[in-house]
Write a structure and sequence with these properties.
By secondary structure, the protein is mostly helical. It has 47 helices and 8 strands. The N terminus is likely disordered.
């Protein structure tokens, strides 16, 4: 038996509530909270997860955090009896029982009869290799069951997969005999999937809680706890797959690096070593050899491994899948759960063995591009013919849109190019840098740029490679000014090169320094230089950037500049779809709330990006679609778009601030306020660390808005004041691009900072331009103004303004904004002591939220209605429910009453503050639920139900 290394006194009897160490308690994970709840309710729970997932930690958290107190059937006043196992324990007969019994002490064993005491003594003193006699099992069952029946216990078994069969039989018998609340139990098992050993021990079909991998936000929290940049969450998720132990090892190793080496989170040797330990702990040598082959190929699959001579590949993959090392999809493709596991598997053999494996894979792979890749990776010396084949394969990968593979192949081709062919090598390095920029592969871009500098390549090649490094960094460009300065130095006398440098300078000024005027000047210089150099694609990109900055600054020139960029006729995919004039045209439609047009444009660009774009193109388009669908009230699609953007940003190692901002925005409308607040907080931290002021402000806006919606006004003011300070340098910024001002006015109003609210409202109005109140931002400012009026006592004026604003939002096709305005209207009507009008407004809001699936707003509205209570019946009346009325929502019931009173659809819509179309849909549901087909039948059904 091996003691539990995470516990000071591993196998002794532990009190259920040890005193907090140094006055602090470790935070309980979601799995621990879930398991503790199951244990309280059902009395039995299994914890499952792969090697290093944190099962022991969760078990300890469950035991440590059970609340104090007493109660019938609760686990709160019980004593914990702990058993911990390791792999060799399966061969030690009654080893687990001996461990458990050795810590009970004479006083607890005194309850046993003389015969039972002899059995226990025999278990405690039997030899390690002594075989089990058939006559021992039943007495052991009875003795242990008698002991466990004598007290109130929580049996905690850590490692059911390694229990010796004799102990498992005895403990299983006791657990079957002493049902909860007599004996409760929590059992862990190292497994990826169903915990069968734990289920056999606990009996029947016990509840199972899986210790899930960390998500990107949890990884960001762990990074922050180690004093590391949370923007590293994406790469670390890719390296570690959310595996708690690997992530913890990575954070510890990265935290020890000197600050000069903390530019990007490289996969540490300690992480790979830990992943190797995982492989050795769970798989035999033959399975590890199969996994080495899988890790060395870009597209591992069962058929490929069989063709490579691994006849037992199916069995080996099943073992690895059970260990949580990889997954095999329905198409037989193999996916490692963490990049560190793939690297550890690839390194499991020495260089000669890996070279031989690459040659084996080259014969088995069946794809000419990957065949060449394996031959190049097996090469130790320059080879002109192989280098040419590798360059051809790289070009093929590029045409297929596999930019990361193309970058790797161009770099491989350069590395095996004979030294005498320096010009060819330089060309291949340049191609590698360009493809790496498109793929966001910073490491390959830097390798290529460094190799070009060492080769004394021409300034054109060196500048192009250095700019590729800039582009590969995505949003994290705050520290790249020295690189741009070096580019300007090398580009002197080359207008086309200087244009490219100035374009990146414009992007950096906007993203990293929040300096749109500086960005506008740089973009203008870039456009002039590109025109002078005759480079139309670069000119179009620079004009697009200039139009973007003109829109930010609220100038009237933006449409003309964008039209000029579009007129150059450059395909959207030429320099990155996200940078194209076509994409900016779609974004302008989003800013102007021309949402149907925006969606059509974005879906057209999405089809293009799926075939010819890169990861950043897809992420930006998905983010824009999420924003559009959120405003349209299409909540489920919005969440799906945002989730795709987060997952690809994480997997591709892109900047997380923008993706987390969009996710938080959609969660605040369609998911949950708690998730939105958590995600926005991560996004703000990540953007701050990257120097991305643009998305610091946007994430802070979502944080402030959610804090406002959930009643945390003080924190909302802090968050939105920070946004106001950051945006002060752009007094006339287009409010359609960044819609923070209405929430800030509302927050300041609710906090009683009326002068600040009025001043912001007055500053924001002029930026609306000609659209004014007829726009989405204008209507949002009107809503904020209405709330400000109500706070000042002008409740009647506020009511009129909010009613008009709700109608305006409906006309603009912004249902969530319409419903939110109805909530504000209801609060004003309640302040006017018009309870029926308040309830009508809230019912109308709930109908919209129900139709759109806006979950957090449904909850908020339900709380308002619950507090308001139902309308009182007239004196002397005690109406009962109409037939089917129990199935009608309050909104549907109210509509039915209005129709029965003779209201037209138009009149009902006005009375309920909803559209005629919504009335028609709701009335159809009422007819269907009540089994009627006309207004006459509806009236009769309602009348028949009233006594």
């Amino acid at each position: 038996m091996t003691p539990d290394t995470d516990s000071g006194n591993p196998t002794a009897i532990h009190p259920a509530h040890p005193a907090p160490v140094a006055g602090a308690r470790r935070a309980v994970s979601g799995a621990a909270a879930h398991a503790a709840g199951v244990l309280e309710r059902a009395g039995r729970v299994a914890l499952a997860g792969p090697w290093g997932a944190g099962k022991t930690t969760v078990l300890e958290d469950v035991l440590r955090t059970l609340p104090s107190g007493s109660g019938s059937g609760s686990v709160r006043t019980r004593t914990v009896l702990r058993v911990t196992t390791v792999e060799g324990d399966r061969d030690h007969v009654f080893g687990a029982l001996a461990q458990m019994l050795s810590h009970c002490g004479p006083a607890r064993l005194a309850v046993l009869s003389g015969r039972q005491s002899e059995v226990v003594d025999r278990i405690l003193h039997r030899g390690a290799d002594e075989p089990l006699a058939a006559s021992e099992q039943l007495p052991a069952r009875l003795a242990v069951t008698a002991l466990l029946a004598s007290g109130r216990w929580i049996l905690a078994v850590d490692g059911a997969q390694w229990l010796d069969p004799a102990s498992a039989d005895v403990l299983g018998y006791a657990l079957r005999t002493l049902a909860p609340p007599g004996l409760t139990a929590i059992v862990t098992e190292r497994v990826h999937g169903r915990a069968q050993s734990a289920a056999r021990l606990l009996g029947g079909h016990p509840a199972q809680v899986d210790v899930d991998p960390l998500d990107a936000e949890e990884t960001a929290t762990l990074l922050d706890a180690h004093g590391l940049p949370t923007r590293w969450a994406g790469p670390l998720q890719s390296h570690c797959g959310g595996h708690p132990l690997l992530t913890s090892v990575s954070c510890t190793a990265l935290a020890r690096l000197p600050a000069s080496q903390r530019h990007r989170p490289a996969m540490t040797e300690q992480t790979v070593d830990a992943a190797g330990a995982w492989l050795h702990a769970t798989l035999g040598e033959p399975a590890r050899h199969t996994l080495m082959l899988a890790a060395l190929t870009s597209r591992p699959s069962l058929p490929l491994l069989l063709r490579a001579g691994r006849s037992d590949a199916e069995e080996h993959l099943a073992q690895a899948q059970a260990a949580g090392v990889l997954s095999v999809d329905p198409a037989s493709a193999v996916h490692f759960t963490a990049a560190a596991l793939a690297r550890a598997a690839a390194r499991s053999g020495a260089r000669p063995l890996r070279a031989a494996a690459h040659l084996t894979l080259a014969r088995a792979v069946g794809d000419p591009v990957h065949e060449v890749r394996h031959r190049a990776l097996a090469a130790d010396l320059p080879d002109q013919g192989l280098a040419e084949d590798t360059e051809t394969a790289a070009a093929t990968a590029r045409e297929a849109g596999e930019r990361a593979l193309a970058a790797e192949l161009f770099l491989l081709a350069a590395e095996i190019t004979p030294p005498a062919r320096s010009a060819t090598r330089i060309r291949r390095l340049s191609c590698a840098a360009q493809e790496a920029a498109c793929a966001g592969s910073v490491d390959i871009a830097r390798q290529a740029a460094d190799a070009l500098a060492a080769s004394r390549a021409e300034p054109t090649d060196q500048v192009a490679a250095l700019l590729a490094v800039v582009d590969a960094h995505g949003q994290a460009i705050s520290d790249l000014e020295p690189l741009l300065a070096r580019c300007r130095e090398l580009a002197t006398g080359h207008p086309e090169l200087l244009a490219a440098v100035e374009l990146r300078a414009a992007i950096a000024a906007n993203v990293a320094h929040s300096a749109p005027e500086r960005a506008l000047r740089a973009a203008g210089r870039a456009a002039e230089l590109a025109a002078a150099g005759g480079h139309r694609p670069l000119q179009a990109a620079a004009l697009t950037m200039r139009a973007r900055m003109e829109r930010v600054l609220g100038t009237a020139d933006a449409p003309g500049t964008l039209a000029e960029a579009l007129a150059l006729g450059i395909p959207a995919q030429h320099s990155g779809i996200r940078n194209s004039a076509q994409y900016l045209a779609a974004r302008h439609a989003v800013f102007d709330d021309r949402l149907a047009e925006a969606r059509d444009r974005l879906l057209e660009l999405l089809a293009l990006a799926e075939h010819e774009g890169d990861s950043e193109d897809l992420v930006d388009i998905w983010r824009s679609l999420a924003e559009v669908d959120t405003r349209l009230g299409a909540c489920a699609p919005a969440l799906a778009w945002a989730d795709q953007a987060v997952r690809l940003s994480t997997g591709a190692g892109l900047s997380m601030g923008p993706a987390w901002y969009t996710a938080a925005l959609t969660q605040s409308a369609a998911g949950s306020f708690a998730a939105a607040l958590r995600t926005a907080s991560c996004g703000a931290r990540a953007s701050q660390e990257e120097g991305d002021g643009l998305y610091v402000s946007r994430n802070l806006w979502v944080m402030g808005a959610v804090q406002l919606h959930t009643g945390d006004v003080a924190d909302a003011v802090v968050s939105l004041t920070a946004v106001a300070e950051a945006e002060r340098h752009v007094p006339l910024a287009d409010p359609g691009m960044f819609r923070w001002q209405p929430d800030a006015v509302e927050a300041f109003t609710c906090a009683g900072r009326i002068d600040l609210a009025r001043a912001l409202l007055e500053r924001a109005r002029p930026a609306l331009g000609r659209a004014g109140a007829d726009s989405g931002p204008g209507a949002a400012l009107d809503r904020a103004h209405g709330i400000l009026l109500a706070r000042g006592g002008a409740v009647e004026e506020a009511s009129v303004l909010l009613h008009r604003t709700a109608v305006a939002f409906e006309g603009l096709g912004l249902p969530l904004e319409q419903a939110r305005t109805l909530l504000a209207l209801g609060r004003v009507e309640r302040a006017r002591r018009r309870q029926a009008a308040a309830r009508a407004a809230w019912e109308a809001a709930r109908a919209v939220f129900d139709d759109t699936g806006a979950r957090p707003w449904q909850e908020l509205t339900r709380e308002l209605l619950d507090r308001a209570g139902g309308p009182a019946p007239a004196t002397g009346q005690t109406p009962g429910p109409a037939p089917g009325a129990s199935r009608l929502t309050e909104s549907e019931s109210r509509l039915a009453d209005l129709i029965c009173q003779g209201a037209t659809n138009q009149q009902a819509a006005q009375h309920m503050f909803i559209s005629v179309k919504t009335v028609e849909g709701m009335l159809s549901r009422v007819y269907r639920k009540l089994g009627v087909r006309s207004r006459t039948q509806l009236g009769a059904a309602r009348a028949a139900a009233t006594p």
